[in-house]
């Protein structure tokens, strides 16, 4: 008799499962990013020109490149309204400043213009370069947020957190030529690296964060408090100190070129910013919530995002990581005490753990989550159309 045939069947390697999950997560993130960006582009380039709006004659605050009687037409220029014009001035003409109470571009931090200028060196116009930098950075931020949420809370929470970042109405500023995408990418990278005790990376990403926007300084007390509370090594404190290098470098630049290391702070008075809590501004914002107009939604988002954010971080303090909670509180404290009311909703959107926290909450109540995502989408379209018509959003 012939020897019996033995067939050995090996079970599939378990190492393929994480790769499959990772690929599925990446596909989900790209889909959320791409679909939401397409919605913004259609709203801006198709719906806004068809919208029967009344041209703005003198919007407040007065934008740099505003033309009275403007009516939007499909073009790349629609991506460069409001602050984008300041970045274009920095890239093409450099920084300027005078202590005259007027607006000057020294208020805007340098990393985003540097990156845009680098892309322009390839022969790409400013608006396309700025569009690419901001949108690709937002995609990177969403990928990091998904991985961070997945590591701590699972795939379901990761998907909801990513959806929040993609569909929040203020994700508009991750597509137009602003710094939201870059700030979210760098701050998320810094927070995730510090949580994983990768202190060199945390310090590097943190320094780049403070070179992008002054609110990045919230990383410094975050790193120090977490290091103290968790008894981390000295290198954790060094990472916290390294975060300030981006801000310090810009202060040195300002001291050398305009003679005032805090010029970016002093010029803020032209935008109506004052130190301390602006109680009157918050009272007016609260009262404006109840006006029967679309703009009331914008005022409502300020109250809900700021004070709702405080509650959300407190409510989920035992579920979120200590790094996420402390950074959330520190960022909100800076925003509230800055005295600036106009753009607080956009600044809260720039707090990556806020998307993480809200996503974690919605993952427990998916029916509410779907309804909220639908509402977000409608408001996102409305905000995009208004932005295209030179209506101030945030």
TrEMBL record:
Provide the membrane topology annotation.
Multi-pass membrane protein
Q: Which UniProt keywords apply?
A: Endoplasmic reticulum, Glycosyltransferase, GPI-anchor biosynthesis, Membrane, Transferase, Transmembrane, Transmembrane helix
Q: What is the lineage of its organism?
A: Bacteria, Bacillati, Cyanobacteriota, Cyanophyceae, Oscillatoriophycideae
Per the UniProt entry, the signal peptide is none
Q: Which domain of life is it from?
A: Bacteria
GO cellular component labels: membrane
Q: Which GO terms describe its biological process?
A: GPI anchor biosynthetic process
The family database entries (InterPro entries) matched by this protein are listed as: PIG-V/Gpi18
Localization annotation: Endoplasmic reticulum membrane
Name the record gives this protein: Integral membrane protein
**Any one Pfam family match given in the protein's UniProt record, by short name:** Mannosyl_trans2
Pathway it works in: Glycolipid biosynthesis; glycosylphosphatidylinositol-anchor biosynthesis
Q: Which GO terms describe its molecular function?
A: alpha-1,6-mannosyltransferase activity; GPI mannosyltransferase activity
Which spans are transmembrane here?
26-51, 119-145, 204-227, 234-253, 292-314, 326-348, 368-389
């Amino acid at each position: 008799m012939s020897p019996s045939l033995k067939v050995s069947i090996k079970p599939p390697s378990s190492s393929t499962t994480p790769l499959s999950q990772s690929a599925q997560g990446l596909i989900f993130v790209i889909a959320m990013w791409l679909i939401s960006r397409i919605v913004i582009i259609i709203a801006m380039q198709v719906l806004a020109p068809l919208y029967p709006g009344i041209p703005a004659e003198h919007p407040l605050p007065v934008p740099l490149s505003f033309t009275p009687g403007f009516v939007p037409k499909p073009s790349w220029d629609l991506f460069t309204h409001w602050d984008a014009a300041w970045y274009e001035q920095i890239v093409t003409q450099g920084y300027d400043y005078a202590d005259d109470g007027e607006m000057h571009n020294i208020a805007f931090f340098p990393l985003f213009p540097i990156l845009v200028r680098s892309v322009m060196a390839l022969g790409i116009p400013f608006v396309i370069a700025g569009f690419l930098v901001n949108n690709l950075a937002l995609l990177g931020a969403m990928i990091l947020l998904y991985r961070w949420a997945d590591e701590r809370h699972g795939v379901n929470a990761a998907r909801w957190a990513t959806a929040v970042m993609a569909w929040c109405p203020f994700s508009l500023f991750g597509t137009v030529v602003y710094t939201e995408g870059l700030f979210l990418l760098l701050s998320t990278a810094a927070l995730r690296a510090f949580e994983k005790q990768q202190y060199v990376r945390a310090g590097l990403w943190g320094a780049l964060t403070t070179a992008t926007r002054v609110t990045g300084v919230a990383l410094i007390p975050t790193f120090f408090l977490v290091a103290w509370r968790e008894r981390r090594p000295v290198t954790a404190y060094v990472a916290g100190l390294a975060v300030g290098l981006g801000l310090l470098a810009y202060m040195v630049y300002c001291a050398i070129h305009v003679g005032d290391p805090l010029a970016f702070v002093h010029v803020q008075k032209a935008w109506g910013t004052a130190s301390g809590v602006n109680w009157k501004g918050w009272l007016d914002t609260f009262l404006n919530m109840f006006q029967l107009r679309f703009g009331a939604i914008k005022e409502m988002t300020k109250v809900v995002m700021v004070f709702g954010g405080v509650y959300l971080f407190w409510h989920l303090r035992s579920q979120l990581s200590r790094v996420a909670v402390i950074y959330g509180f520190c960022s909100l404290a800076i925003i509230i005490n800055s005295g600036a009311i106009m753009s607080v909703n956009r600044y809260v959107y720039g707090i990556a753990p806020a998307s993480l926290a809200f996503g974690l909450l919605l993952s427990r109540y998916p029916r509410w989550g779907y309804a909220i995502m639908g509402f977000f989408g409608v408001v996102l379209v409305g905000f995009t159309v208004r932005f295209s018509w030179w209506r101030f959003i945030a």
